[in-house]
Amino acid sequence: MKPCPKCQVELDGYALRCKSCGHELTKAELYPSAELFHEKGTISSADSLSVPEKSTLDSSTIARKLSGRYSDAYTEAHVVVSAGGIIKGIGGILAVIILIGGGEIGHKIGVGAGLSIGLGFALSCIVSIPIYVLGILVSSQGQTQLAVLDTAINSSRLLQDDDVAKILSKRFSL
Ligand SMILES: [Zn+2]
C-alpha cells in the first residue's frame, strides 16, 4: 500500500518493518495523518475540542464538555426543524385564507364563479408557495445539522460508548 521510506519496496498496510531492507517504521511513518494532526494543532478554535499532548483535562471532563456542547447543538437543530415546520404551517394556512378571500372578492366584484376561484387560487399560490418553500429549506437545514451531529458523535474519539448513548437519548427525547 505504501512504499518503504528507505528502499521504496511496497509494504502492506499493517507492516511495522520492511521485509526487504529491515527498516523499522517510525511512528510518524506509520501514522502520517496523526502527525499532521499534531502539527496543525487544533481541529477547532473551541477549547473543548483541542486536546494537547499533555492535556490538563482528564477524559471525563472532556466527555462532559463535549456532551454539553452536543446536547446544546441538538436543541438548536431541533429548534430550526420546528421553525421550518411552523413556517410551512403558516404557508398552508395563508393558502386557505387567500383562496377563500380571493373567491369572496371575485364574488363581490361580480365576476363569474370560475374566475373567482381562479383568482383566489392564483393569489394563494403566489403568496403561499414561496413561504412553504422557505419552510422546507429551513427545516432541511435543521435536518442537516442533526445528521452532521450524529456523524460527529458516532465518530468522536473522545467520547465513550455510554457518553454517546447519553447524548443520543437526549437527542431523541427532544
Ligand atoms: Zn525497505
Itemize the secondary structure elements and their pairings.
Elements: E1 2-3, E2 10-11, H1 27-30, H2 32-40, H3 59-108, H4 113-154, H5 161-173
Antiparallel strand pairs: 1-2
Helix pairs in contact: 3-4, 3-5
Zinc ion (ZN) is lined by residues 4, 6-7, 9, 18, 20-21, 23.
Helix/strand/pairing category: mainly alpha
Number of separate domains: 2
- Total beta strands: 2
Bound molecules: zinc ion
Query: How is the largest sheet built, in terms of strand order?
Result: 1-2
Globular, elongated, flat, extended or rod-shaped: what is the shape?
elongated
Helix content: 55-70%
The helix tally amounts to: 5
Largest sheet: 2 strands, antiparallel
Q: Which series of helices and strands comes N to C?
A: EEHHHHH
Report strand %. Answer: under 5%
Cα-to-Cα separation, first versus last residue: 46 Å
Poorly predicted spans: 35-48
Radius of gyration over all CA atoms, rounded:
29 Å
Return the average pLDDT rounded to an integer.
Answer: 82
What's this entry about, in short?
The protein has 174 residues and is an all-alpha fold. The chain has five helices and two strands; from the N terminus they run E-E-H-H-H-H-H. It has two domains: 40 residues, no CATH class; 117 residues.
